[in-house]
């Protein structure tokens, strides 16, 4: 077997006339953190469900850990861990009872279960709370317990479907540390998220939109291949931001415009010329400019740009 | 096989823990049967006794007294009032103080002694049809008894023996005193089992779907059949306990014994439990919401079990359409088995067709549910 933990070729899933996933192909290398990005309804969960053997593909193939998800569902299931955004725990059982239950259905023997129970409690920072009812735990603890239960059987590949939804920023950061640790131990992690800052932690990323793959690569590659024009960040008065956006958006030299908090990100053809044009346009519109500087594009810039391009393409195809 | 069962054990343990932590489901599974048996046994009583009686004696002779004594001493009637006219009777009926009236005409004794026909009037409050019917039948019987005695006395005076061409010798088998609790308690077992097993099974599966834990079970190496077995075994056990509780309470409170084979009885109970669990599972595969599952369970188990199975209303007296429809109620077949085994002491040879139907029902329900669960996961 080669170095890929997951190999997906032309994977497609239709629900009636609706195509949720449309001929997606990608590879996930062993031990990497692989980010799976897209808006809600883009087809992320459908793809993960197919890779976990929960849903049969309409066409195409996928191999997970070397096993075909269509014909070797059982081997696939033995080799993966799965955690969804719903933190599938039993609220009316205690922490330890949840762990023992999941250990039991994966067939862990007593000695191994004891060892893994201790490991999960330590990892999730739940030592001393074994007998607490799960429903009394706060989001971050629940999230880590759910992860612990999903990887009790030490799977080679872990699927995390929106694992950081609904938890506070500190818990999110802690959670990503856990994911990094898993990856360092050689576990392959495929994670879906719509937090673009989280995507920066990934070794490789794919972006899907309306069931189709629109970009793939490492965060650095994505930034350098797709965005070659300079991006300028413009800080204006909060009150003037909407007016400024409207004025610049209609200017032909502004290739791409978006709002980031209290700043505008504007893609231009040339840095010096761009700065001059922005100052001139906003002065004419009566908007005070605090600062303009060239920035390194974030993944968010890249994805907004790519999604825009997709929308333009779709528009011309229809028109 | 052993690995298959090893994976099932944690589910069983978990299920019991969840039931124990959930007072509502535990209450429904164990307290409900006890409450129902007391309610049904004592309140749902078709035996008409102590019907309040009013008499209107317009003759006031030794003979009329003698006739009325038959009514007054009968345990079926409670003598409450003596009326002075039809207005009084109506008054008592309207206020619900009496439901049957016996009216002795004037010159009752004289006409009788003269050897002529006497008409005694019985008035019954028909607003409660069941009581009215039984009270009327009892009144007719008491009157006929009295008339026979009068004729016999007349024959004796003339030195002849009374000759009755057709003698009526009623003898009721299996439940000689016609006590309705003997008839209802066996039916109650089926009613409660079907109701609680269908509801609790459908809810336990749908709850896992709502919480997302079902998905977690589906990505594990567990097979659908293991999930089903693990989740249903605890309810099989609880239903068996509930059925036993009803049998014990039925014996202690209402003297309902098991005449036939206990083993055969439990075989029937186990079969209907499996069918009901299958029905609950099937419901859980068509809905993702606990509320919908609850409604569907109640409708599909309570109504047929209560109305169509013959639990209370005899199937034979239903319109033909309902008689045909009654076959969807698996309880109908269970009832025949349980009543036959408990009351008549019947053996397997008498009830095997019903067994076949129940087994087919259980297999179809469980088979279709597992098939549907597999399809979901495929």
Would you kindly provide a brief summary of this structure?
Chain A contains 11 helices and 14 strands. Chain A has helices at 44-51, 73-79, 95-105, 110-123, 139-150, 169-184, 196-199, 219-226, 241-249, 271-285, 299-318, and strands spanning 4-15, 18-29, 33-37, 59-64, 67-68, 80-83, 157-161, 188-193, 204-209, 212-217, 231-236, 256-260, 263-267, 289-295. In chain A, helix 6 links the parallel strand 7 (157-161) and strand 8.
Question: Which features characterize this protein?
Answer:
heterodimer; A: 319 residues; alpha/beta; six-stranded mixed beta sheet; four-stranded antiparallel beta sheet; 14 strands; 27% strand; globular; B: 378 residues; mainly alpha; four-stranded mixed beta sheet; 14 helices; elongated
User: Looking across the biggest beta sheet of chain A, what order are the strands in?
Assistant: 6-7-8-3-9-10
Overall spatial form of chain A? globular
Total DSSP E strands of chain B = 4
Going by helix content, strand content and strand pairing, the class of chain B is mainly alpha
Count of discrete alpha- or pi-helical segments spanning 4 or more residues of chain B: 14
**Helix percentage range of chain B:** 55-70%
Any idea what the shape of chain B is? Answer: elongated
Instruction: Output the helix-strand order of chain B.
Output: HHEHEHEHEHHHHHHHHH
The average pLDDT value of chain A, as a whole number, equals 89
Number of helices of chain A: 11
Span of the ends, CA to CA of chain A: 47 Å
Largest sheet of chain A: 6 strands, mixed
Strand portion of chain A: 25-35%
Largest sheet, spatial ordering of strands of chain B? 2-1-3-4
Query: Biggest sheet of chain B: strands, sense, closure?
Result: 4 strands, mixed
Largest interface: A-B, 29 and 25 residues
Low-pLDDT segments of chain A: none
